[in-house]
């Protein structure tokens, strides 16, 4: 959903932070991205097990798409 935002954040890190801590900031960014790929399906899987959970997951995804547009 947020791939183009990741490119903008990487450019922001390169422009704003000094060279000596850029690697730390890029590492933090990649860690957060990795956690989101791990936790996102886990949370969505549990959400779909509750009554009406699939509709809730679709609604949240739609809201995120609108916010990101």
Structural class: mainly alpha
Oligomer: single chain
How is the biggest beta sheet arranged? none
Which spans of ≥5 residues are poorly predicted at pLDDT below 50? none
* Arithmetic mean of pLDDT: 88
Give the CA-based shape. Answer: elongated
Our count of helices gives 3
| DSSP strand content | under 5%
Protein name: Major facilitator superfamily (MFS) profile domain-containing protein
InterPro entries: MFS_trans_sf
Organism: Bracon brevicornis
Question: What features would you describe in this structure?
Answer:
This protein is mainly α. It has one domain. The protein has three helices and no strands. α2 packs antiparallel against α3. It starts with a helix and ends with a helix. InterPro entries: MFS_trans_sf. This is Major facilitator superfamily (MFS) profile domain-containing protein. It comes from Bracon brevicornis.
Give a topology summary.
Layout: H1 3-16, H2 19-49, H3 53-68
Task: Briefly say what this structure is.
The chain has 69 residues and is mainly alpha-helical. The protein has helices at 3-16, 19-49, 53-68. The model has no long low-confidence stretch (mean pLDDT 88).
Characteristics:
Major facilitator superfamily (MFS) profile domain-containing protein; mainly alpha; single chain; elongated; 3 helices; 69 residues
């Amino acid at each position: 959903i947020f791939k183009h935002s990741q490119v903008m954040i990487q450019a922001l890190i390169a422009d704003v932070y000094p060279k000596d801590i850029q690697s730390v900031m890029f590492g933090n960014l990649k860690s957060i991205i990795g956690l989101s790929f791990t936790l996102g399906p886990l949370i969505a899987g549990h959400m779909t097990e509750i009554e009406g959970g699939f509709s809730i997951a679709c609604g949240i995804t739609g809201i995120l798409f609108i916010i990101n547009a």
